[in-house]
Amino acid sequence: MRNFSDYAELSADELRARIAAVRAAAGDRLVVLAHYYVPDEVVDLADFVGDSLGLAKQAAASPAEAVLFCGVKFMLETADVLMNRPDKIAARGGRRAVVMALDLSAGCPMADMITAEQAEDWKRQLDELVDFSEFTPITYVNSSSETKAFCGRFGGKVCTSANAEKVVREALANRPKVLFMPDSRLGRTTCLTLGIAPEEIVTWRPNKPLGLATPEEIKRARAILWDGCCPVHQRFSASVVKKIKRDNPGSQFWVHPEAPRDIVDLSDGYGSTTKLIDVVSKAEPGSVLAIGTEWKLVDRLRRRNPDKTVLFPAEEPSKCVNMGKSTLAKVAWVLENWLDGEPTNVVTTPAEVAEDAYRALESLL
Ligand code: 13P
Ligand code: SF4
Questions:
Q1: Most exposed residue of 114, 282, 293, 362, measured as fewest CB within 10 angstroms of its CB?
Q2: CATH of the structural domain 111-230, one choice from 3.40.1080.10, 3.40.50.300, 3.30.1330.10, 3.40.50.10800
Q3: 139: which strand partners?
């Protein structure tokens, strides 16, 4: 395997030339996917840049034999399950697609806020009080494959920020109640939008007796939410939003649904990263928009829409450090190793986990 430290010395032009050489040799055997939150130098070389839903769909439909996925671990695990279903492996003549990360340490803190063991323990506690078969367990895609497999085992689903309302609505048409993990912010906003009353929504505090809820609250709940959150989306400030609105009459504030409810309440609308990009690109020239999502994306929107004013609704930039671990040097290193026949940073899901996780992931396709 090549030595990564050799790449640290190379200029951006040299790295880009080496990446281009690998891609020319690989042709359509290789696809490069990137999430909007990774730095520009990597976004600019991807075949497809998208939100979690778009990226999962691209991976599922890709005929490539290798994917370099520039994002965070749960995205790679999702791509691995979707690209390596038994029918897909058979179509590749028995070969697994190789799903490669730029940095295996790039996880998502929210995804780590629930483990499959915690989900099982949650179910055990609920079994004492309610009929669990009345609940559809739904996990946000920002979760481990094991958490997705837990949901798959109990007839559950995976959602993203782009399709959460659809997934929860369909679940409620089949069973009267939902269990939503690990993002209580997305869960609350989605349930309120679908007309569930605040008193029918219970937030379950992890590692506390009965999640700090009363038995009556749990029996009455139509939605029980695991209390996880994205640290990056908790830093928006109501006073900054109000000041932007005061100083810029007619301005709009749009936010990602990982933000707390009091911030969503101040907004003109919410949506996935793709939706937020769409709002900015379709706004009239001269518009003023505050966009509440990860700072690198908002900064890119500001630079790429010079005819509009794009503002960040917080005191300080709020960056996802894990998405920031994607660099050109890592792209060149991972791709050259792969072309040498020594793929590195490969993400693989155990077959029994993948099977149950896929049942829940089908809701994305
Ligand atoms: P989407 O791009 O799917 O809206 O998700 C945002 C996010 O936080 C990904 O980690
Ligand atoms: Fe996780 Fe938040 Fe980073 Fe997305 S922005 S990867 S939810 S920490």
A1: 282
A2: 3.40.50.10800
A3: 158, 181
